[in-house]
Amino acid sequence: MLRGIVGFVKRNEGERMKLNSKTLKILSREHENILKVIDALELEIEQLKNKDIDTIFFKKVIDFIRNYVDKFHHAKEEDILFKEFNKCAEEGCIHCNPVEQMLFEHDEGRKSVKMMELGMDEREKNKLIEGARNYIQLIREHIYKEDNILYPMADEALSEDVQKTMLEKFNKINFAKKKQVEGFEKFANEMSEK
User: Fold this and answer.
1) What is the mean pLDDT of residues 120-141?
2) Is 41 within a domain?
């Protein structure tokens, strides 16, 4: 179902949907950090055929994906946003529910990262490149769907009270992980300068 929607929405790919919810704006800003690192990863794998594996670079990228993307960003989506969105779907507030697809894509991303890590550990360039390419393509499409389909749907469907509660939970998580997140944001900014 989402493929048809994505095909329709992609006509204006350069544009981002406007979000009203502070919670969803936070998630969308986190996507910007993720894309900075993904762009640097893509550049690195394009050059990898002509050089040795930069283990330090790949370890940092994998750490960023596992801890910022997955344990910080995806955790907020899975534990807070998706649960609220599913409640709303059960109450009939929305016409379709893309959450199951988003969860599937989170899991597929984890598999690609594992392949990258194995390729790095085994010094197997082709496996590393395949895992990285899979992850890059998946996460870019995934972010596009969230920013342009899921988040605007949630923005419209979730009540102000629910969004306020979600924001409080997000702020609590952001405060608890402030130092880590600042380090990952610094890393993302450094990667965008590569």
Assistant:
1) 97
2) yes
Separation in Å, CA 164 to CA 19, 26, 116, 191 = 15, 13, 38, 33
In a domain, 126, yes or no: no
In this prediction the pTM is 0.88
**Is the pLDDT score of 7 beyond 50?**
no
Residue whose structure tokens are 């990258």:
116
Number of domains comprising the chain:
1
Are the C-beta atoms of 105 and 127 separated by less than 8 Å? no
DSSP per-residue string spanning the chain: -HHHHHHHHGGGTTS------HHHHHHHHHHHHHHHHHHHHHHHHHHGGGS---HHHHHHHHHHIIIIIIIIIIHHIIIIIHHHHHHHHHTT-SS---HHHHHHHHHHHHHHHHHHHHHHHTT-HHHHHHHHHHHHHHHHHHHHHIIIIIHHHHHHHS-HHHHHHHHHHHHHHHHHTHHHHHHHHHHHHHHHT-
**Residue 55, pLDDT above cutoff 70:** yes
Residue at 173 is within a domain: yes
Range(s) of the domain holding residue 79: 21-99+139-192
Q: Name the residue with higher pLDDT: 1 or 46.
A: 46
